[in-house]
């Protein structure tokens, strides 16, 4: 298995939550939502205006919404 980044550093890519969740894989929205529910993140994600399409900020420190 290739190791593209060290997950203990909390690294995220400047892409929507949806893309960060499935990075390197194909997945349906249902599978993405199920993964977020397992990680106890689904409720939070659904409270932001764009949900799974919300951009993750630089290194995952902030979430931003494009206007």
Put simply, the count of helices is: 3
Care to count the β-strands?
2
Q: Decide which structural class fits the backbone.
A: mainly alpha
* Helical amount: 25-40%
Q: What oligomeric state is this?
A: single chain
- Widest sheet: strand order? 1-2
Whole-number average pLDDT?
Answer: 77
Largest sheet: 2 strands, antiparallel
Count of individual domains: 1
Beginning-to-end CA distance, first to last residue: 38 Å
H-E order: HHHEE
**Radius of gyration over alpha carbons?**
12 Å
Low-confidence stretches: none
Percent range for β-strand residues: 5-15%
Mass-distribution shape: globular
Keywords: Hydrolase
GO molecular function, one term: hydrolase activity
Protein name: ABC-type xenobiotic transporter
Write a structural description.
The protein has helices at residues 17-22, 29-38, 42-47, and strands at residues 55-56, 63-64. It has a two-stranded antiparallel sheet. It contains three helices and two strands; from the N terminus they run H-H-H-E-E. The mean pLDDT is 77.
Outline of this structure?
With 67 residues, the protein is mainly α. It is built from three helices and two strands, in the order αααββ.
Helix and strand arrangement:
Elements: H1 17-22, H2 29-38, H3 42-47, E1 55-56, E2 63-64
Antiparallel strand pairs: 1-2
Features:
67 residues; two-stranded antiparallel sheet; mainly alpha; 33% helix
